[in-house]
Design brief:
The protein contains 18 helices and no strands. With 459 residues, the chain is mainly α.
Length: 459
């Protein structure tokens, strides 16, 4: 490909997105550049503070539990208070709690503040995903979510390297550095991002630009949009099916940071070997996320999710046959490709299934699936490796991938019929642009994920 073709492809990948999106993208990148606690919590507790591995595991589990709790609370706040105040409160409180953690001495205090950090750091995710769905036109969401996911992994790749150097000097400096960058994100959100929460209309509900609610458009019924609570989300069978499948997929992907290092350590590999192998994941996402998205954004989402689930499950299953380091790296290539396809595609599906005025709650429940998986995956990996050996863990990932693929195939049959909405006006000016009723977008769109509680390097 010529240099001119590359420049044209890059312009097409970033063109047409509203200014508010790029401020949100910038806040994501800055926030991930400061990701120190989640990356070095275990090493900080065991090497710097001298605590046992079991205590470190307890603290990490409490951090994950905080994310589970805040997913639901933040989802409700996003819908009731708005995206902007929720983001501001989440990021400002994260900055405070991360800085506080660096000064804690007593084990009980460390555990309690770690729970608080997990709650505050996870609270911004439903608001980010909902705001992105608000401000980006439906036909552009594939690229928007993919670009945001790219920023997450770029920030993670840079922060992991820098944080390692900082940790050699001072762990406290790392905590304070993350707090400073997170506070900068809070200020950025407050100054640059307008509120995007849709305003309720009298008929079917409408967003700020006059966009019809997804549920109203799908049903074709008029009348006031019913009040949406957590019970509404939990009774939405198809959406909860997506949440369940997301849980299975996240159980698989989380093994890259949980089961893989334990298995490689048991096989005699050094931490440096694992670092080299897992670095392939971040490098491939940064290098391939945007071009792969361009290839798949108009493809059938059902097929993309089925194929990505199989690639994820069997990519990890191939680890059972890996011998040298390069073989482990090849397996990472397989499941990283699955991550690149699955995460944005699945987020696009979540947005399309979420009523306009319930996006916060829907995103909160979806985010919870990753947070719960972050709790279960370490327990699953430790039990299976200790009891039966790592090969059983990798075989299980193959089974989970197959179950998820069948689930996506069944869940999405006929889903594209009658789903459409009106595109919101681009932030920063311009008239609302009406979009015709359209099938479910055939492409990805991640949030924010995804995530810590998400694929390796996801937020």
């Amino acid at each position: 490909m010529s240099a001119a073709s590359l420049r044209r492809a890059a312009r097409e990948s970033v063109s047409g997105l509203p200014r508010a999106f790029w401020w949100l993208w910038t806040s994501t990148l800055v926030n991930r550049l400061g990701a120190f606690v989640a990356t070095f919590m275990t090493l900080y507790l065991t090497l710097d503070r001298g605590y046992s591995a079991s205590f470190a595991g307890l603290v990490v589990a409490l951090h994950g539990l905080g994310g589970v709790i805040s997913s639901l609370v933040a989802g409700v706040m996003t819908d009731r208070l708005g995206r902007r105040p929720t983001l501001l409160a989440a990021q400002a409180s994260t900055a405070f709690s991360v800085a506080l953690l660096g000064f804690m001495e007593h084990p009980a205090a460390i555990a309690a503040v770690a729970l608080l950090v997990g709650m505050t750091s996870n609270a911004s995710r439903p608001a980010v995903a909902a705001m992105m769905a608000d401000i980006v036109r439906p036909e552009d969401r594939v690229r928007a979510f993919a670009l945001n996911y790219w920023a997450i992994n770029l920030g993670f790749a840079v922060s992991a390297t820098a944080a390692g150097l900082i940790a050699e000097y001072s762990y406290l400096a790392g905590f304070l550095g993350e707090a400073a960058l997170t506070l900068a994100c809070a200020v950025l959100v407050y100054v640059k991002l307008p509120e995007s929460r849709p305003e309720r209309g009298g008929v079917g509900g409408s967003d700020a630009s006059g966009a019809s609610g997804a549920s109203g458009a799908a049903s074709g019924k008029s009348g006031p949009e019913p009040e949406i609570g957590l019970g509404t989300v939990l009774r939405d069978g198809r959406f909860m099916g997506v949440v369940g499948l997301s849980f299975l997929i996240s159980l698989i992907f989380t093994q890259g940071s949980v089961g893989l290092p334990v298995a490689m350590g048991s096989a005699g590999f050094s931490p440096g070997d694992y670092g080299l192998v897992i670095a392939v994941n971040g490098f491939l996402i940064v290098a391939l996320q945007i071009p792969v998205t361009r290839l798949i954004e108009h493809r059938d989402p059902q097929k993309l999710l089925v194929v990505s689930a199989l690639l994820a499950g069997y990519g990890f299953a191939l680890t059972a046959f890996a011998g040298p380091v390069w073989a482990y790296a090849l397996t990472v290539c397989v499941w990283t490709l699955a991550e690149i396809v699955n995460s944005p595609t699945q987020m696009g599906l979540v947005v399309r299934l979420s009523p306009v005025h319930g996006r916060g709650r829907y995103q909160g429940v979806y985010t919870m699936s990753w947070a719960v998986a972050a709790l279960v995956a370490p327990l699953m990996a430790g039990f299976m490796i200790d009891r039966w050996g790592a090969d059983w863990l990798w075989a299980t990932t193959g089974v989970l991938g197959t179950v998820a693929a069948v689930g996506y195939w069944l869940l999405m049959r006929g889903l594209s019929e009658g789903v459409g909405e009106t595109a919101p006006a681009a932030a920063g000016g311009g008239e609302p642009k009406a979009a015709p009723a359209e099938p479910l977008p055939a492409g990805p769109a991640p949030a924010e994920p995804l995530p810590t509680s998400g694929p390796v390097g996801a937020s």
